[in-house]
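As a warm-up, study this chain.
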Amino acid sequence: MTGAAGLIGRAVSPTPTKLWDLQLSDRVCGVVAVLDVTSGEACREAFAGADAVIHLAAVAQPWASWAQLHPANVVGAY
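Now compare it with the structure written out below.
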């Protein structure tokens, strides 16, 4: 799961972790693994062997510029 330390990630991660073996990641240090979702190589390595990826990493501020939104919201989703 990307964005596990974010608002939505923190709200939803307790439920799936009870059901599945999840690799929790975010761009910041903390209780999850650090992952830059804009790095295809890092994502392939982090999720090698995974059956699915729950992509919650995003910039959600409606006032954010395209330059702020593009990396996590577009590149990270690709």
